[in-house]
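Q: What would this chain look like folded?
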Amino acid sequence: MVNDANWLLPEGVEEILPDEAIKLEMLRRSVTDDLISRGFQLVMPPVMEFLDSLLTGTGEELDTQTYKFMDQHTHRMLGIRADITPQIARIDSHYLSDIAINKLCYAGTVLRTQPSQMGGQRELLQIGAEIFGIEDESADIEVIDAMLTALRLSNAKDLTLSLGHVGIYRALIEEQGIQGPIEQSLRDVLLRKSTPDLQDLSAQIDIQPFEKLLGLAGSVKTVEEAQAVFESNQAIADSLAQLNNVVGHLSADAYLNLHIDLADVLGYRYHTGLTFNAFVAGRGRTVAQGGRYDRIGKQFGRARPATGFSADLKTLVKLG
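A: My prediction, written as structure tokens:
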């Protein structure tokens, strides 16, 4: 008797059968071709590396999501990548360090110990693009345009792009010197959009700026409202000016719904500036995301401006 258990795959891992496999491959080619036409150079980092290299810098945030095992040749710990972006930063810092501006793109498998949502996948086919060496928002605009094209190549309909800027939150906590467990509690409150829980922190910090921050979400007019609220803080004013320039560019797209959420601190430990998340009607979770993560290459010896986007091709192929 055949044991059916022998044919089962681990939870969160799937096989791609012919009909969907060809659609997936065609979409990969289309998105990659578009990125190359925009001047991005294709790179192919290895799926596994020595663990200390894989988790260097911002990659440390991926520690619990990374599969680890011993290398039988060197007896050093290896890891299977859970995200490709840290690898791209290393390529920029080491192999292409003589180039002032690098525009790199990639497509490859990533494996995670836990899915990002209940019933989700642990094996993703990640595709994305990164720009290194441009400090102003023109790079963010270029990356967002490339991401939106990737979504439209997947036949995604009714697109909404949510924009934020973690520089605002960073400026507010620096103003009060908030750090450690209090900062973690504050960030958790903002992530849950919980005004009552924010009140519980009033004995430890001035919660008024964060109450205002929680109310700054909605249409593109939110940026103007925020400029009036925080006009005395120069760091916040600079962040909002960057965001406003991006909004001005994207507002010309009549088929794109824009949403502003200045209290979005989900990527605070990773991102340093503008952030963006793409949604489609009928799906509660983001289908593509990205943002600015300046100094990502610091641990590799080349700290400089960087921005990029990523998406799971397995998700994108199901949007059409």
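The longest strand covers residues 102-111.
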